[in-house]
Amino acid sequence: MTERMGIREIREHLGDRVNAAHHLGEPTVIERNGHPFAVLVPYTWWEQRRNTEGQGTLAPWRALPRGPSPPA
Asked: What distance in Å separates the CA atoms of residue 34 and residue 7, rounded to the nearest whole number?
């Protein structure tokens, strides 16, 4: 089951959700203002996808913006 939690709620339950990801393989969708913002997934899942980069899984992840651009 995929758990969904807001930013404030995940702060209170982070240890539990990290354990659920690691031991049970349960992802957690982290929401901000009711919209999906990030996902906490098991490290082994992420590592497997990272290693298959370029095969249509997470190839675009490196191209994602990393926050606001510095002023010019």
From this structure: 10
* Tokens encoding 72: 């010019």
Predicted confidence (pLDDT) per residue in 20-48, tens digit: 999 999 999 999 999 999 999 999 998 88
Burial of residue 28 (number of CB atoms within 10 Å: 0-12, 13-18, 19+): buried
| Full-model pTM | 0.68
Torsion angle defined by CA atoms of residues 23, 36, 47 and 12, in that order, rounded to the nearest 10 degrees: -40
Q: In this structure, which amino acid lies at residue 26?
A: E
Q: Quote the tokens at residue 19.
A: 């354990």
